[in-house]
Amino acid sequence: MLKSGGHIDRSTQVITVKGVSKSFGELHVLRGVDLHLFRGENLVVLGRSGTGKSVLIKLISGLLKPDTGTIEVLGEHVDELDEKALQQLRLKIGFSFQNSALYDSMTVRQNLEFPLVRNKRHLTRAEINHEVEDVADAVGLLHTINQMPSELSGGQRKRIGIARTLILRPEIMLYDEPTAGLDPITCIEINGLINEVQEKYKTSSIIITHDLACAKSVGDRIVMLLEGRFERQGSFDQIFDTEDERVKPFHDYNFIT
Ligand SMILES: Nc1ncnc2c1ncn2[C@@H]1O[C@H](COP(=O)(O)OP(=O)(O)OP(=O)(O)O)[C@@H](O)[C@H]1O
Questions:
Q1: Closest Cα to residue 213, out of 233, 230, 248, 189?
Q2: Under 8 Å CB-to-CB from 230, ≥6 apart: which residues?
Q3: What's the ipTM?
Q4: Candidate of 20, 22, 23, 24 to mutate for ligand 1, largest count of ligand atoms within 8 Å of Cβ
Q5: Domain 9-92+172-254: which topology?
Q6: Which residue has a Cα nearest atom 4 of ligand 1?
Q7: Could you read off the pLDDT of 47-95 as tens digits, one per residue?
Q8: Cβ–Cβ < 8 Å for 213, 187
Q9: Contact 20/59 with Cβ under 8 angstroms?
Q10: In angstroms, what CA-CA distances link 11 with 36, 146, 152?
Q11: Of all protein residues, whose CA lies closest to atom 9 belonging to ligand 1?
């Protein structure tokens, strides 16, 4: 299904990265990158392994500081915030990371309510139950709520991980390799879920991936990180309509038609 893009507010940028460089010793990972995310948009960041996609996410969430440049998230200059202000800002950002595992000793319900109990202490038990059931339903797994994570499939665990992130109603979602390690059918389901989340929760998202099927399915716009810079941006077809020898093998390798 083609995305309409009708939900995107192009007059508001929820993330603005300007002239950001980041090196580790002699390794120049990002070399003056500019990037923006519009409100309501799904932006895919494509790049080969080791090109700096995770570094970019860490810079946006204030876990790393840039060597040069500025990063604005929801109107705040991330690189100027102290730890307390950063923590407040991070509550508005949902992180779906590859290693954001569920707690094995807790039920699905307990996993989902954990962020609420920790961050929204004024909520009543009834309100917590309502929120938990709402997000479990949104990811299509209300029926698993009393199960243990070990009883779920890999795709179901991923969905519950996303639901746990959604429970704090983040304005921004950052997905790091959402389809990594999943079979093709489950990948399609997760891509569908990312689009449903965008619509239902009005999130603005950055999706980091090297899965082109994922990029094609979820991306309203795609940027490609090449040699420390965003060399290409546009729709999926625009990105790959090139004779650039650094881009073509990427496409061929993924066998996307
Ligand atoms: N804290 C750090 N200290 C030193 N080097 C780092 C640090 N963080 C990242 N790097 C290096 O920066 C480069 C980019 O890393 P990054 O994790 O962003 O890659 P990536 O594009 O996310 O790759 P992958 O798709 O494999 O996860 C790598 O060479 C990595 O070793």
A1: 189
A2: 33, 34, 35, 223, 224
A3: 0.95
A4: 24
A5: Rossmann fold (3.40.50)
A6: 24
A7: 888 889 889 999 999 999 999 999 999 999 998 999 999 999 999 999 9
A8: yes
A9: yes
A10: 11, 43, 41
A11: 55
Tell how far the Cα of 54 is from the centroid of ligand 1, in angstroms.
Answer: 6
Alpha-carbon gap, residue 116 to 245, rounded angstroms = 48
- Nearest residue (CA) to ligand 1, atom 16: 52
Instruction: Report the C-alpha gap between 46 and 76 in whole angstroms.
Output: 26
The ranges assigned to domains in the chain are 9-92+172-254, 106-169
How far is residue 190's CA from residue 17's CA, in Å, rounded to a whole number?
Answer: 27
Tokens for 53?
A: 């996609």
Which residue of 28, 29, 212 sits with most ligand 1 atoms within 8 Å of its CB, as the best mutation to test the pocket?
A: 29
